[in-house]
Amino acid sequence: MMTLIQRTWVNAVALIMLLGVVYIAPALAVERTITAEFRPHAGNPNNNSFTNTTPCSLPGQANAWCNRPNGSFPVSMALSGITKDFRHGAAEDGVLVRTPAARTIQVTNDESGDTAELILEFTDLGYQVRGLPSLYTVTQGSLDTPDNLGVNCTKGRLAGALSTGVSLFLWPIVAAKQATGAECVKALKPEVVSNPQSFNSVLIGYKLTSPNPLEMRNGIYRGSQSYTLSPSGDFSFGSGNYSEVLTFNFELNVQHDFSIRQPPGSENVVLTPPGGWEQWLHRGTAPPSLQRDSQFFITSSSPLTLSMHCEHLEGLTCGLQSKLDDSIVPVQVAITVPGMKNAQGQAVEKLALTSRRPGERLGVESYIVDQRSTVHFQVDGPEVEQMIRQPGSRWRGGVTLIFDAGL
């Protein structure tokens, strides 16, 4: 008899998004939670990326931000306590944004303690300010075009006035500079000697690269990363009187799918010689082996551990026991699961199973849905000869395969 047991324990690819961060008061840490999830779907089995679930909230700018063609995604919050006197002169005194280099962030599964590493790079930076005359009226040329166009930054999609005295812009960082960080500037007209502005919001775009979620266990993964915002900080808007710490909290939700289905009757396996018993019945020739395949169907988007339990253990494999004298012969057990790979990255095709613990670690190449799979059973020639020396004997044994998805 063969039994398949499905065991589940209920315990990121690239994301490119845009983020607005609030500053509540000078020198206070401000936090923003970014959420994303992975849920496999039978209609798109090759998907191996997270979907952003952070709400998009940009009053008056939803169409321009939330529907960005490059997959960026925004949130926006109010800002207070930061001022800057914009004026013609040094780059630090004009319109300036500076981004930090990429960092590696560790996220940890709440239940299992499994960890994964994310790479955080910044793809865009800008802000919204209030003051008269409006910032966009005092720059040399359009505010949407930085002076070092194409070197560190490219032309922005957002620039101009939202209302009287309110200006905003967002400059994309060129792809080659996102990992190292970049500084982008815009000079003011020579006649601008003083133009105080108060910051309403800061706009940040980022790219978050995570491991393949098909290789991550189920659950919530959390991590955080903090940055300083000041004239000489990780982020900078140039000269001014401001000093803040902003913290990004990340929550990645991995929700895998997993199930095992056995056709009715497949749990009872009868081993027979290849081609039947004719050679034995008519010529007395012992069969070279006894074999049988048993089918099952598996749905899985997660890595799993496969272990084998035996009613009668014979060495490292299962055995069949004679009802006459309780002697035991070994039965070789192997498995084939199209679309799965073993720990060495090899296809799971007639993978020999043993009773060793913790078992075979298997992974998926993509989300597999109701995939027809096979368990192979075989008793080899020498053991067959031992069995047929007991005419009329019956040999029985139970094999249990446990698929532990660790969900």
Give a topology summary:
Blueprint: E1 2-7, E2 14-21, E3 29-38, E4 51-52, H1 62-66, E5 83-86, E6 95-98, E7 103-109, E8 115-130, E9 158-163, E10 166-172, E11 183-186, E12 195-209, E13 219-229, E14 244-254, E15 258-261, H2 278-283, E16 289-300, E17 304-310, E18 313-314, E19 317-322, E20 328-336, E21 340-341, E22 351-352, E23 360-364, E24 368-380, H3 381-388, E25 395-396, E26 399-404
Parallel strand pairs: 1-26, 3-14
Antiparallel strand pairs: 2-12, 3-4, 5-12, 6-11, 7-8, 7-13, 8-10, 8-12, 9-10, 13-14, 15-16, 16-24, 17-23, 17-26, 18-19, 19-20, 19-25, 20-22, 20-24, 21-23
General description of the model:
- The chain is mostly beta strands and 407 residues long.
- It has two domains: 11-254, no CATH class; 258-404, Immunoglobulin-like (Sandwich), CATH 2.60.40.
- 5% of the residues lie in helices and 44% in strands.
- The protein contains three helices and 26 strands.
- The chain has helices at 62-66, 278-283, 381-388, and strands at residues 2-7, 14-21, 29-38, 51-52, 83-86, 95-98, 103-109, 115-130, 158-163, 166-172, 183-186, 195-209, 219-229, 244-254, 258-261, 289-300, 304-310, 313-314, 317-322, 328-336, 340-341, 351-352, 360-364, 368-380, 395-396, 399-404.
- Strands 2, 3, 4, 5, 7, 8, 9, 10, 12, 13 and 14 form an eleven-stranded mixed beta sheet that branches. Strands 15, 16, 18, 19, 20, 22, 24 and 25 form an eight-stranded antiparallel beta sheet that branches. A five-stranded mixed beta sheet has the order 1-26-17-23-21, with no helix packed on it.
- β7 (103-109) and β8 form a beta hairpin.
- The longest helix has 8 residues, at 381-388.
- It is rod-shaped.
